[in-house]
Design brief:
heterodimer, A: Jelly Rolls, 2 domains, five-stranded antiparallel sheet, B: 15 helices, globular
């Protein structure tokens, strides 16, 4: 047999080739591709197009605040530390611990009537509990010298700010799962309290301490997802 | 064992097969040009798919969250680039093995230049932000390889009686095995196509990043492959009735029977693509044991069988001990992966599973001793008694094979670099955002 150098087709479809079967193969594959196109573009077209539509969901957060407070007399020059641990039961009721607000309040209680307010400074070390410590909205330290409250703020759940969201794609279970985590907020938060007492008069009763009240407001949330 | 673990084991298996077989293939200089070229390509197919599978495992393990700046972009990019390399390899392979479709050096130059241009085109598309679009023609390899190997298979399997011999049977068997290698996972879903099941028509190629046009074209290529498989299965059933069954006959019947059984399990599932494998539901377990298993364990075994069975290895007396060692390593990995898989589905005591692993590996090695010789000593010729017209002689320089290996190694390295850059530039995240917004 002379080598048919020009094309393989002459050999594949030579006289002794099972041409009927080969062409039947091509016929079957064409039939299958046509059937698929018919189902895809006609028979089930609506269903398939609907599947490709991106569903939008509104994600809302229902918040619940758990408040606890504690008072402590802090002596000038002797810093005190208070601690806070969220109630474990809250993690089972809610999807997550959103953020923690801390209000430090005090009044002028020592010395003479009308004495000037002491200077109170507080700070929360970013350790001991799981939170989004690097979040730019965090306020981890503050001070006051006019008896006004000091307000601190810590984002606990990553990216949580309590505002409603719109999400395209995914499914409600996946979105809920994304906003469910009982690790965030676990552990113990602590706050350091310092008092710099001021006495109006060097003679007479001296003001060397202050009673400080710390209020911990733990904002837990539940996720509510609805199709838009 | 999670599906991602199976994927990782499969990746290790494929990289091991690729690296070890490349060593043996490089030493086998006595082969015909087309067999030698084919053997080199098969090795690189394994290496590419192995690296791609490892990337896919990490991608799935990460949960595919599509976050900005995420590491998932590196694994996603690497997976897709390796798939491009795999596609290139399959196209090259079907043109030269088991019989060369290319008849002279000019054909060879034109064909491989065209493949190189197509590969470069796909890489550029991916790099400029048009990855995973219809422009890439993802799935075209199923069509081209299917037409070539399907035609070759029928041509030799159903050759006139007077022209049939062991070589024509071997050519048909090699073409058939390569079809299983490439299309086998698709054949599991044949009832889904015909009965309009969601698990077939819902196929989501790249988890939201692939455009709808890509899904259509990919599915159309699946429909083509299923039609091809059904025809071949019918031919093989007839051969079985006529007493001419071979390994391909049983494999085809098994794949199509499993596909039929699978329909009853998957008909209520929304997705049966291998991404959906796992161990939680019956449907996930089924996908793990069929399509996922095909990708991770059966492909390396089929590839190794083709290399051994048709003498693409250097199995001379000097090399035999090393080849045997390679086969033993592969069998140990494959059997332990299988046992782990069974253990994940049917939890058993660790002592019992350790004992079972020992027994299975011992049997595996014992089986290897006998089966290795059987395979290596089986008639492997594809040339004896076959007309010369099927094997045109083309003189290929030794440097070409060295160049091929070096070129492929450089391409794999370049892909790693590209994947890293795409991660650092957030390119895949931006692609995902565009897809979610319905853009190209």
């Amino acid at each position: 047999m002379i080598l048919s150098d020009e094309t393989i087709l002459q050999d594949l479809f030579s006289e002794d080739a099972p041409k009927k079967t080969i062409f039947a193969l091509y016929g079957v594959v064409m039939l299958m591709m046509s059937y698929h196109a018919l189902v895809y573009f006609v028979v089930d077209a609506e269903k398939i197009i609907a599947r490709n539509d991106v569903q939008e969901y509104s994600v809302d957060f229902l918040e619940n605040t758990s408040i606890s407070s504690e008072s402590r007399v802090v002596v000038d020059g002797e810093p005190e530390t208070l601690e806070f641990t969220a109630d474990e039961n809250l993690y089972t009721i809610f999807n997550g611990f959103g953020y923690l607000e801390i209000t430090v309040s005090y009044a002028e209680t020592g010395g003479v009537l009308g004495g000037s307010c002491d200077t109170v400074s507080v700070d929360i070390p970013p350790t001991g509990a799981s939170a989004d410590w690097q979040h730019p909205s965090n306020i981890l330290a503050g001070n006051s010298d006019d008896c006004s409250d000091i307000n601190l703020y810590i984002v606990i759940f990553q990216e949580y700010n309590g505002e409603s969201l719109t999400i395209a794609g995914g499914d409600p279970e996946a979105i809920t799962s994304q906003w469910t985590n009982n690790e965030y907020g676990s552990g113990t938060f602590s706050i350091n309290l310092n008092v710099d007492a001021t006495s109006p008069n060097p003679v007479g009763p001296q003001d060397d301490d202050e009673e400080i009240t710390v209020t911990w407001s733990a904002h837990f949330f539940n996720v509510v997802i609805e199709e838009k | 064992m999670a599906a991602t673990d199976l994927g990782l084991i499969g990746a290790i298996l494929m990289i091991a097969v690729g690296a070890m077989t490349l060593y043996f293939v490089r030493n086998n200089k006595k082969l015909m040009w087309n067999q030698r070229l084919g053997a080199h390509i098969i090795c690189w197919l394994f290496l590419a798919k192995g690296i791609g599978s490892a990337a896919a495992s990490f991608l799935i393990a990460d949960g595919v969250l599509f976050d900005s700046g995420g590491y998932w972009q590196f694994t996603f990019s690497l997976l897709w680039l390796m798939d491009i390399l795999f596609t290139t390899g399959m196209l090259g392979l079907c043109l030269v093995f088991p019989i060369p479709i290319l008849r002279n050096k000019k054909h060879l130059k034109i064909a491989f230049t065209a493949i190189a241009v197509f590969t470069a085109y796909r890489i550029i598309l991916f790099m400029v932000g048009f990855g995973v679009t219809i422009l890439e023609l993802s799935g075209i390899t199923y069509l081209i390889c299917g037409i070539v190997w399907g035609t070759v298979y029928i041509r030799f399997r159903l050759a006139p009686v007077e022209k049939r011999n062991q070589s024509t049977e071997n050519i048909a068997l090699a073409a058939g095995l390569l079809l299983i290698f490439h299309l086998g996972h698709i054949w599991f879903s044949w009832p889904g196509l015909i009965l309009r099941a969601e698990y077939f028509y819902n196929l989501d190629l790249m988890d939201g990043i692939s455009h709808r046009s890509v899904e259509y074209f990919w599915q159309a290529c699946y429909a083509f492959s299923i039609g091809l498989g059904m025809m071949l299965c019918a031919i093989e059933v007839k051969q079985l009735v006529n007493g001419r069954a071979n390994q391909f006959t049983y494999a085809m019947i098994t794949y199509f029977t499993l596909g039929f059984i699978g329909y009853t399990i998957l008909s209520s599932a929304s997705d049966a693509f291998w991404w959906a494998s796992g161990e939680q539901t019956l449907a996930q377990i089924w996908i793990t044991l069929t399509s996922s298993m095909h990708f991770t364990i059966l492909r390396p075994l089929i590839g190794m069988y083709v290399l051994l069975r048709f003498g693409l290895f250097d199995t001379s007396e000097d090399m035999k001990p090393k080849a045997k060692m390679m086969v033993i390593i592969l069998i140990v990995i494959a059997t332990s992966a299988l046992l782990e898989l069974v253990q994940a589905i049917v939890p058993m005591n660790e002592m019992l599973s350790a004992a079972l692993l020992g027994i299975i590996v011992a049997f595996g090695i014992g089986w290897e001793e006998r089966s290795f010789d059987n395979i290596v000593n089986a008639p492997s010729s594809m040339r004896d008694g076959v007309e010369d017209k099927w094997y045109p002689h083309i003189e290929l320089e030794e440097s070409l094979f060295k160049g091929l290996d070096i070129g492929m190694a450089l391409l794999v390295s370049a892909f790693l670099l590209i994947a890293y850059l795409q991660w650092q530039t957030n390119a895949i995240f931006e692609l995902a955002v565009r897809r979610v917004n319905g853009e190209w």
